[in-house]
Amino acid sequence: MSHAGPPVIGAQAGGVVPRKAVKRTNSVQPNAPTWLDLRAIAHARASSEDHMHRIDHALCADTHAHWRAAEPGEQVIELHFHQPHDLKRIRLVFVEKDKGRTQQFTIRWSARRGEAHGEVVRQQFNFSPSGATCEIEDYRVDLRDVERLEIRVVPDIGDRVAFASLSHLQLG
């Protein structure tokens, strides 16, 4: 039986158990996520979007562009998949550098022609221009045959005027 990786200390009565190195045939890290190309496999819609910051900007992680609502208040982002997909991971990045506020978002999903399957997560966090300006939410999930994913963003639960935004949405 061979093992990959460095020696393990203390495995046999305090001794060292040598492990045989295994050569990797590709440069992908073993736990690196494989992200879906959301622009190719889904139609995205936002309840409001600034014409300079469209929702499709948030679906591509290799860009510095982002989505921003054109109107203040609660917003909804919907992804409608062309074909059902199994999801194992959901990653969102929110950035707010200018205004302190408490934001909440909720992720819901459905399969089989819109049948609702419930919430994946409901999360609140605080932005502070002098401190927390970026929030990264990364969830491991087990969602089967997803046809629709909904992200509801309340940009400020204190009911102050605030615009929802999303820097990146990645699914794997």
General description of the model:
- By secondary structure, the chain is mostly beta strands.
- It has one domain: Galactose-binding domain-like (Jelly Rolls, Sandwich), CATH 2.60.120.
- Helices cover 5% and strands 51% of the residues.
- The chain is built from 2 helices and 10 strands, in the order ββαβαβββββββ.
- The protein has helices at 38-41, 55-58, and strands at residues 8-12, 15-17, 42-46, 67-68, 75-95, 101-111, 115-127, 134-154, 165-166, 168-171.
- The strands form 3 sheets. Strands 3, 5, 6, 7, 8 and 10 form a 6-stranded antiparallel sheet that branches.
- The longest helix has 4 residues, at 38-41.
- It starts with 7 loop residues before the first strand and ends with a strand.
Topology overview:
Layout: E1 8-12, E2 15-17, H1 38-41, E3 42-46, H2 55-58, E4 67-68, E5 75-95, E6 101-111, E7 115-127, E8 134-154, E9 165-166, E10 168-171
Antiparallel strand pairs: 1-2, 3-5, 4-9, 5-8, 5-10, 6-7, 6-8
Provide a brief overview of the structure.
With 172 residues, the protein is mainly beta. The protein contains two helices and ten strands; from the N terminus they run ββαβαβββββββ.
List keywords for this structure.
5% helix; 172 residues; two-stranded antiparallel sheet; disordered N terminus; Jelly Rolls
